[in-house]
Amino acid sequence: MEAITETMSQEQPYEKFMHFGAEALTEAELLAVILRTGTRNCSALELAEKVLSLARGREKGLNALHHIPLRELLKIPGIGEVKAVKLKSLAELSKRMAREQAASTLSFDSPDTVARYFMEELRHEEREKVLLLSLDSRLNLIEKDVLSIGTVNYSLLSAREIFVLAFQNKASSVMLLHNHPSGDATPSRQDVCITEKIKEAGELLGIPLTDHIVIGSNAYTSFKKCGLL
Predict the structure, then answer these.
(1) Domains in the chain with CATH codes
(2) How far apart are CA 49 and CA 9, in angstroms?
(3) 114, 220 Cβ separation under 8 angstroms
(4) How far apart are the C-alpha atoms of 153 and 228, rounded to whole Å?
(5) Which helix (H) or strand (E) holds 220?
(6) Cβ–Cβ < 8 Å for 48, 35
(7) At what angle do helices 8-20 and 44-52 cross, to 10 degrees?
(8) Cα–chain-centroid distance for residue 72?
(9) What is the bridge-based pairing of β-strands 141-149 and 173-179?
C-alpha cells in the first residue's frame, strides 16, 4: 500500500477554498478537495487531473464522472476503492440535487418541467431507456415504470404492454420518455411511428398519450410541444 503524504501542493486547493470560496476553484481543484490526499509521488490535484483526463465522448469535465466506470477509476494509481466510491457518489449526488431542484416546478402538463426533472436521470444513460409515466385525472404521477433498457426493440415495445401497465396503475393518461445516448434529441422515424400507434391505441382505450419526450444532452424534444401528437 502506497504511503499517503500531505504536501503543500495538496493543501493549496483546500486553502484556496477557505480564502476565496468554492467558486474560485477549478474543477480539478474541487476534486482534489474531495480526494483530500494523494500518494508519495502524486498530489491530490494531480490525481484529480488524471480522473478528468478519462473524460471522452460528449461529456467533458465533471460531467464525465457519470460515465467513467468504477473499474476505470481503480486503474489510476492512487485511486483505491474509497476514493473511487467517493467520486461516483459525488456524481450521483449531483444528479439527485438537480432532480430535487427541478421537482419544485414539476408539472406534468408542462413539457419543459417534465424534461428538466428527468434530464439528469436520462441524459447520462449510455443505453436507451424508455419510461412510462402513469398519470391520474389531475395529471399527478401515479407510477413510473421502466419499459426497456438497451437498444429499443420497437417490436417488443408494444401498445399492449404499455396499456396493461396503465390499467394496472389505474391511469387516466400516460406519458412516454426515452433518451438518445448520442445526445441528439431529434425523434427518429421509429420514434414517430411507435408514438402514433400508442396514441391511436390510447384513444381507443380511453387512456390518452399526453406526450412523448425524447431526452438528449441538455436538450429535449416534446412531441406535444412540436405538434407531433
Answers:
(1) 8-99 (no CATH), 105-222 (3.40.140.10)
(2) 13
(3) no
(4) 21
(5) strand 220-222
(6) yes
(7) 80
(8) 19
(9) unpaired
Amino acid at 46: E
**Is the CB of residue 39 less than 8 Å from the CB of residue 7?**
no
Q: Collapsing DSSP states into helix, strand and coil, what is residue 97?
A: helix
Distance (Å, whole) CA 106 – CA 113: 5
The amino acid that residue 199 corresponds to is: K
Q: Which triple of cell numbers denotes residue 59?
A: 461529456
Kindly list the strands in the beta sheet with 220-222, ordered across the sheet, starting from the edge strand earlier in the chain.
141-149, 129-135, 173-179, 209-215, 220-222
Secondary structure class of 170 (helix, strand, coil): coil
For each of the chain's 229 residues, which pLDDT tens digit applies?
Answer: 444 444 434 458 989 999 999 999 999 999 999 999 999 889 999 999 999 988 766 567 787 888 788 999 999 999 999 999 999 999 889 888 888 888 888 999 999 999 999 998 898 888 899 999 999 999 999 999 999 887 655 545 678 889 999 999 999 999 999 999 989 999 999 899 999 999 999 999 999 999 999 999 889 999 999 998 8
